[in-house]
Amino acid sequence: MSTPAPAPDGGARCHALLPDTPYGPLTLVAEGNALTGLYMTDQRHRPPQESFGPPEDVTAPPFAAAVQQLRAYFDGTLTDFDLPLAPRGTPFQRRVWAALREIPYGATLSYGQLAGRLGKPSAARAVGLANGKNPIGIIIPCHRVIGAGGSLTGYGGGLDRKRRLLDFERGGAPRGRVDAGGQQPLFG
Asked: Looking at the DSSP assignment, which residues form a beta bridge with residue 17?
């Protein structure tokens, strides 16, 4: 599991681009030795590019380890990231993001189930809002949270990416498959 870093170590903010992934280009953002962001193109709540700091090579620390682990994830050989992370957010958002890291690879939870795990069973909407503000997509697996009936809802990277990530983690089932009743499969 990715290790949370309490706060960036004071190093300058910088970013690196991982241009060729199955989910499009990914922008990695770091401060010091901790990853603070992983953003997809056209992602909702993506900060302005100029806030990412100067560009850095993907082979430089801390990006090299993140790129290596992301490639292993995309190859299907890594199911649990182990990187120093320092997502910025409110205390509640950070609690939600920590809980997301507890959802096993290939599994899903509903927003209500995640709220229950946090001891706030009536806070499904607040959990959904925090989930949507996750600054380190894929590594903090917000794509593993679904609607109450198994519906795919609310993914900042777009529902097509969410479906593809869930299908991939479930064994690479073809994108957009339907079950015998003509319905989208439930992922939970």
From this structure: 27
Read off the pLDDT of residues 46-95 as tens digits, 9 standing for 90 and up: 998 899 999 999 999 889 999 999 999 999 999 999 999 999 999 999 99
pLDDT for position 188: 30
**Residue 125: is it exposed, middle or buried by C-beta count within 10 angstroms (0-12/13-18/19+)?**
exposed
Q: Is the peptide bond before 62 cis (omega within 30 degrees of 0)?
A: yes
In this predicted model, which residue has the larger pLDDT, 60 or 181?
A: 60
Which sequence positions are flagged as catalytic? 142
Nearest to 117 by CA among 130, 135, 132, 98: 98
**DSSP sequence for 129-175:** HHHHT-SBTTTS-GGGEE-TTS-----TT-HHHHHHHHHHHTT-PPT
Question: What pTM was estimated for this model as a whole?
Answer: 0.84
Q: At what angle do helices 124-132 and 91-100 cross, to 10 degrees?
A: 80
Instruction: Please choose, from the candidates 136, 25, 13, 18, the residue with its C-alpha nearest in 3D space to the C-alpha of residue 85.
Output: 136
Alpha carbon of 69 to those of 78, 80, 138, 186: distances in Å? 7, 9, 11, 28
Residue 128's contacts (CB-CB under 8 Å, 6 or more residues apart) are: 111, 145, 153, 154
Residues 6 or more apart in contact with residue 7 via CB below 8 angstroms: 86
